Structures are given as C-alpha cells and as structure tokens.
TrEMBL record:
Organism expressing this protein natively: Pocillopora damicornis
Pfam families reported in the protein's UniProt record: mTERF
GO MF annotations in UniProt: nucleic acid binding
Superkingdom of origin organism: Eukaryota
GO biological process, one term: mitochondrial transcription
Family, per entry: Belongs to the mTERF family.
Keyword set, alphabetical order: Transit peptide
Name of the protein in its database record: Uncharacterized protein
GO terms under cellular component: mitochondrion
Coiled-coil parts of chain: none
InterPro entries reported for this sequence: MTERF, MTERF_sf
Amino acid sequence: DDLLRHRVKIMRIVGIFPESVAYVVKESPGVLTARIEESLPDKIKCFEELNVKPKFTKDEILHVLTKCPTIIAAYTVESLQKKVQFLEEELKFNKHHIKNIILKQPSVLTFSNDALKEKWNYCFEKINVSPTGIARCPRVFQCSLKRIKERHLYLKHLGLIKDETIIDDYGLGLIVTPSDKRFAEKVAKMSLDEFDEFRDELDLSSKE
C-alpha cells in the first residue's frame, strides 16, 4: 500500500492533476505496479528532448501521458525514441508533423510499425493523401485498415471520389469518422443499411 501511494505521489509531483491521476490508474492500472518512480521522470525528460518543432512544453507532455497512460506504464524511453525515429525515417514525417501526431494521437507511439506503415501506405498510395495531410489527421492510425479500405472503396463505388482525386486532411478525417452511421449518412449520403450491404459484398468477394 505504501508503494502504491508513493507511485500516486510521483505522478502528482511531476504535475499530473489529481483527477487525471484517477483516470490514468483506471485506464492503465499497470502504472501502480511499474517502477514509475524511476521511469516517469526519464520519460518526461525524453519528451522534452525529442527532436520535434516546436519543442514539447511541460503541459503538453503531461497531456500526452494522461491521454495515453499506457506510455507511463509499459513503454521504455528507448522504445519511444525508436518509434519517433520510425515516424521520421520510414514514414517521412517532419519535425512539425511528429509533434502534431503525438499531441493529437499519442497512442500512435504504442502501435506496431507494421500497422502504421500499412495505413500510411494505403492513405498515400490509394487515397492520394500527402504526408502532411496524414499528419494533420492522425486519427487515421486509430482506425483499422479494413475500415479505412471499406469506406474508401464505398466512396469510389458511389462515384464521390475517383482514382485521381486528391484528398486533404479534412477529407481523410471524414473517411475515418468514428461512427459508421455518421459516415454512411453524413459523408456517403446513404443509409447505414446500404453501407452494410456493400461491406457484406466486399467480404464475400474477398473470400472467393
């Protein structure tokens, strides 16, 4: 119990608000069993020193850590640095892009390189979104590749976009709208039933 209290105290000392501490513990109970008294200050220092523009402020770092508490509990400084290196070298995001991605969608730091690369490739090669457009809509990495494909192909099927259509970050944001119902009705201007029917046909054709 003393150790648990000590770990909660560590989170408070680095500046995480009491209500945020409660959220962090609820979302990622591992923070109470991980040796965060050693690792948390190092992670904050890691974010402060990341090669991004503009540099992370203390408040921004705390926002990232509380929005994705798994980073506190389960990821090493080395793994975070390697992920940022991957975003820059493999996905060709610049220092401004990386800052925006981490700030808006910190869970990107916890996704596998393969999953990130697959989604990046599909958006860049098939949907015609620029790296800047992808960086401005990092929610795309939270979406499954299957869902991205289904929605993109549905919009093509309806004639709303063509192979040569250039999609910006706003358009990509519409494609990865969290709700299927909202996507069908507001973006595709069809009913959810019609969209579901199309997806069923896609599933069938992919199994043949």
